[in-house]
Every structure is written in structure tokens, then in C-alpha cells.
Amino acid sequence: MPDKAGLTTRQFLASVCAGLTGPLWVRTAAAQDPSPSHMPNSSVLSPASLRIGASTIDVAFSPGDLDLSRDRILAWVSKAARAVALYYGQFPVTRAQVRVHPAEDRDGVFHGTTYGGDPPFTRISVGQHTTQAALDDDWMMTHELVHMAFPNVSHDHHWIEEGIATYVEPVARVQTGELTPARIWGDMVRDMPQGEPEAGDEGLDRTHTWGRTYWGGALFCLAADVQIRQASKNRAGLQTALRAIVAAGGTIQNDWPIEKAFTMGDQGTGTQVLTDLYEKMKNTPVHVDLAALWREMGIESRDGKISFYDHAPFAAIRRAITTPRKA
After folding, report:
1. Fewer Cβ close by (within 10 Å): the C or N end of the chain?
2. Are 107 and 44 in contact (CB under 8 A)?
3. Which are the contacts of 256, defined by CB distance < 8 A and separation ≥ 6?
4. Spatial CA neighbour of 140 closest among 117, 119, 170
5. pTM score
6. What is the C-alpha to C-alpha distance for residues 44 and 59, in angstroms, rounded to an integer?
7. Looking at residue 326, what is its pLDDT?
8. Which long-range contacts (CB under 8 A, 24 or more apart) does 307-312 make?
9. Would you tell me how many other CB atoms lie within 10 Å of the CB of residue 162?
């Protein structure tokens, strides 16, 4: 999650990671790993295969030392994968690969990138001195694995790939109990405005700034989630649509037109929300009245603290977004 004071870490690093397919992230923490299997002198940790439901994730390590044990790293990957599997009803691909790169004299998790192919592949760096506290608070592993749950689309539509990962990651982690609703809604209240169009904006397909790619895409997802739930009387949401896309074969292993993805999602929800919202936002700067939306959802931010008003018009929608959905 972004830092709470001043510029977010994502904002600061945007100039560094411009052009990368995945975001760059560094986070530090103070605790040390008390595990008895601590192996600071290992040169290459042995690979492992993780079973996530019916799927297998093969985890390999590049040469390098880590203060944390192999088991701690594998548990971190597994936790992220299980959050993705819970959100989507199953892990989106039957087999995937993850390569962990130890980074000498560094701490935190950074340089996460996910590629298509057979099988899909995520590479991610973990600093040598990364602590368990840093892994517990990490968002990047989940973000990268979410990328496996949407088809490859053309460069003009990169905003939907990053927007889904930015929006789904914290929601999935609330559904597993890893984060609280107050934390993620607070983060969204603070960060969603970065996705609003600025002067000269030409719509999501034609404006490839960092803010519009990550948070503009996330803003599309939030608006779609609320509108789908309004249209379906809260029986379906963006989660329903994304599950339908995966069920139709829309994973990172396949190249699809964005219109096909949205059609499959709309069929899953029995609405036209994704298609219609895309038509509105693709070539035109559309502002979302976030202040009004937060009020309608019963979200109030005061002095950095979030409170909920459960009699607000969309309070049930707010609760439904973060409630685990049955497979």
C-alpha cells in the first residue's frame, strides 16, 4: 500500500519505473526473522511446488542470500496465491511459475513483473534483509498474481490490466482477513483521485500517464463494481464479471480484444456495465464524483481515520465488495 504521508511511494517511483510492465515497490520494516530454519549463508535455495486448489505454482530462487528462511518466502507466495484464488473462485491458471531474486544488502519487495506464456511467469525481487513484517504487509506479490487473471490486451488498454490488479489486490486481501475494510477504503479515499483526468486528457485508451494507467484503471473498476451492483440489486459485482472472464478463457495466456473481455464479463453479470462504461471513458475524460460516491457508500474520512455509516444508500454495496463470495 502507498505511504500515508506526502507523496505515495508509487508516485515517487513512477518516474523510476515508467515503461515497466509491473510497478516498482520498496518497503522496509524493523523486525528480524526468529525462525530456526534461518539460512543466511545459502547461495541458492531449492525450488518448490505449491498446490493452490487444482493449480500448481512452481517457485524457484535465483542465487543469493536471504535472512528469511525458504519456508517463510514460500508461505508469502502461497498467501498471495490463495488470496487471488479466493477472489476468483480458483487460481486463474492451472500452472504458473514464480522466480524470487534475492537482492544483496537490500530490504523490501520490488521489481515485480508478470509475463504471459505457457506457463505464465512472475519474477520478483526480495531484499536480503527483508523482514517478516515487510512480507506480511507486502501487496506486490498479490498484485502480480492478479495479472494472470486477465487476457493480454493491446498497449492502448494497459490501464485495464494495471487497474484490475490495483483494485482487486486490496479487496482480495480483505476477503482473506489479511487487511481490514477501513484500511483499504481509507487508501482508496486517499489515492483514487490520482486516477482522475487532468488537463489535456483524452480518455483511458489515449492517455498513458502513470496515474491514469494505475489509478485511472482502478477508478474504472470501482465505478464498474458499484454500477454492476446497482443494476443487479447487489447480486453481482465486478468480482462476478472477472470470474466470468476467467471462466471463458480470459487469462494472461491468451490475447483478446478488450471488447471481448468486457462482453464476457457483462454476460456473467447480466448487465452491460463494462461495455457501456468503456464506451464512455475510452476516448473521453470522465470525472467521477468521488466525494459524492464516498458519501453514498457511507465512507467518511476525518483526520486520517475512516468511519462507516451503515444507513447510507450504498452501504450494502460497500459491504458486499469486501465480503468473500462463494465459488
Report:
1. C
2. no
3. 151, 152, 153, 250
4. 170
5. 0.87
6. 12
7. 77
8. 308/181, 308/182, 308/185
9. 23
Mean pLDDT, consecutive 10-residue stretches, the chain (327 aa), reads: 33 33 27 34 85 98 97 98 98 98 97 96 98 98 98 97 98 98 98 98 98 98 98 98 98 98 98 98 98 98 94 98 87
Cell of 214: 494505475
Query: Checking DSSP bridges between strand 305-308 and strand 299-302, what pairing results, if any?
Result: antiparallel
Q: What CA–CA distance (Å, rounded) separates 124 from 246?
A: 24
CA-atom Rg of the chain in angstroms? 19
Kindly state the DSSP code that residue 301 receives in the 8-state scheme. E
Distance (Å, whole) CA 242 – CA 191? 23
Strands ordered across the beta sheet of 109-115: 48-52, 55-61, 95-103, 121-127, 109-115
Residue 296 region, left (φ>0) first, then alpha (ψ -120 to 50), else beta? alpha
Reading the block at residue 198, the C-alpha cell is 487532468
Identify the pLDDT of residue 304.
Answer: 86
* 174 vs 303: CA distance, rounded Å: 23
CA distances from 276 to 188, 227, 279, 280 (A): 24, 11, 5, 6
d(CA 304, CA 198): 25
Lookup result for grid cell 462482453: 263
Q: Cβ(169)–Cβ(176) under 8 Å?
A: no
Distance CA(127)–CA(100), nearest Å, equals: 10
Task: Give the closest residue to 76 by CA, choosing from 20, 27, 18, 12.
Answer: 27
C-alpha cell at 272: 452491460
pLDDT value of residue 327: 65
Q: How many DSSP H helices and E strands does the chain contain?
A: 13, 7
Residue 173 to residue 82: CA distance in whole angstroms: 9
pLDDT of residue 4: 30
E strand or H helix at 98:
strand 95-103
DSSP state of 47: P
Helix axes of 181-191 and 158-175: crossing angle, nearest 10 degrees: 150
pLDDT for 227 equals 98
